[in-house]
Amino acid sequence: MNRKKGIYLLVLTSILWSFSGVCTKFISWNGFAVAGIRGLIAALLLLIVNRRPRLPRSGFQVAAIFSYVGLVVLLILSTKLTTAANAILLQYTAPIYSAILGYFVLKEPVTRHDITVIVLVLIGLAVFLYDGLADGRMAGNLIALLSGVCYGAMNVFMRKCDKDAPADNIFWGNLLAFVLMLPFMGRPEITAVNIGIILFMGIFQLGLAYILYSIAIPHVPALEATIITVLEPILNPVWVMLFYGEKPGIRTIIGGAIVLLAISGKDVLRKLQTLAVLSKV
């Protein structure tokens, strides 16, 4: 596969991921049922593709699996309690936690660029939390924030695993999400709409999306991958606004813009600096 095809697959991946918000809003099940059953369906799809998932072989793999569970479950729960825009954009505060945890686990230094990103993301975070206090959605915002913590931790622990381990981790994470959510699902209402939505979420929005991501990511430079995947938090609230009628507040838009610019801008700045150095050689 070449870089161009990898980019196309990443764009498709981001679009599939972005439907999480509108699907979660429309389905009548509680968040535990949505997260658990979606995970089971995705796990079955991944089992078809990766027929022999290996059991975790290190503590870092176990940590990566539990971080993944927190990422996917908490995003669904927060989307039920706050706006889809708040839920997905607060999840993207993950670089803060990746930088801090990466310093201790991966021994990666925290650069001035990282500090700049952390400060900007914290400013965006303050806007989000103020918005939560203003409209009474603080609980959902805090859960979304925890989802971002799990996202950041997952990125770090995945990097400590073998190169073939992430696919296994995603499989076990989805299966574990189902097992852990099972006691809290209640009695999901069986309707054609609910079944259609959960099948779409499990097969396409989560399962197929991660399969495409794993295929594409080795062929796309980190800078481009970062910018492309930012499509997810941009499109997520757009679908919700168009099809569900939920409009993000002005503070959400401002806070989200700060967070997304901080994330993508960091990599762009590094790339420009690299090009500047090369031009002097």
Q: Unreliable runs, pLDDT <50, ≥5 residues?
A: 274-281
Give the overall form: globular
Helix content: over 70%
Largest sheet: none
Q: Any idea how many domains?
A: 1
Strand content: under 5%
Structural class comes to mainly alpha
Number of H- or I-type helical stretches? 13
Keywords: Membrane, Transmembrane, Transmembrane helix
Family: Belongs to the EamA transporter family.
Protein name: DMT family transporter
InterPro entries: EamA_dom (IPR000620), EmrE-like (IPR037185)
Short description:
This is DMT family transporter. The protein has helices at residues 3-18, 20-26, 31-49, 59-81, 84-91, 94-105, 112-135, 138-159, 165-181, 192-216, 222-229, 231-244, 250-280.
Mind explaining what this structure looks like?
The chain is mainly α. The protein has one domain. The chain has 13 helices and no strands. Helix 4 packs antiparallel against helix 5 and helix 4 runs antiparallel to helix 8. The C terminus is likely disordered. This is DMT family transporter. Keywords: Membrane, Transmembrane, Transmembrane helix.
Keywords for this entry:
DMT family transporter; 281 residues; globular; 0% strand; transmembrane
Spell out the blueprint of helices and strands.
Blueprint: H1 3-18, H2 20-26, H3 31-49, H4 59-81, H5 84-91, H6 94-105, H7 112-135, H8 138-159, H9 165-181, H10 192-216, H11 222-229, H12 231-244, H13 250-280
